[in-house]
Amino acid sequence: MKNPLGNLMQQAQKMQEDLRKAQEELELMQVTGESGGGLVTIVMTGKREARKVTIDPSLVGEDKDMLEDMVAAAINDAVNKVGKMKKERMAEITAGLPIPPGFQMPF
Questions:
Q1: Where would one find coiled-coil regions in this protein (predicted)?
Q2: Pairing with 66, which of 58, 84, 92, 97 sits 20 to 30 Å away (CA)?
Q3: Are 47 and 27 a contacting pair, CB within 8 Å?
Q4: pLDDT score for 41
Q5: How confident is the prediction for the chain on average, in pLDDT?
């Protein structure tokens, strides 16, 4: 008969390795957040670093406050997409393991 604690330790080690690999993959991925129907877009990495901001020329010279709000909205959209992407990836890795509700992994 196998040792249940040994099995649990093996599962934990495998999960730790899977988490490390997933974190590396996620850091390389990019998402695009947008606002104003795509008039403002932000490309962001899985590390939540903005890589590119694109503003449609039709907005330049328009209301400055509106443009600032649209940039902020696009950033927030990108941040939310990164969070969703990480949550989905975490669910794939931890599927079938008894992890307490609300437990946060290190990414």
A1: 5-32
A2: 84
A3: yes
A4: 92
A5: 82
Beta strands in 29-97 (DSSP E): 30-35, 40-45, 50-55
Give dist(CA 28, CA 42) in Å, integer: 16
5: tokens are 């604690």
Six-digit token pair at 63? Answer: 């209301």
Order the strands of the 50-55 sheet from edge to edge: 30-35, 40-45, 50-55
CA distance 67 to 9: 52
Question: Domains, the chain, ranges and CATH?
Answer: 26-95 (3.30.1310.10)
Strand locations in 1-107 (E): 30-35, 40-45, 50-55
Identify whether the C-beta of residue 7 lies closer than 8 Å to the C-beta of residue 14: no
pTM to 2 decimal places: 0.61
25, 18 in Cβ contact below 8 A? no
Closest Cα partner for 41 from 82, 89, 75, 92?
75
Q: Which residue has the tokens 């390389």?
A: 28
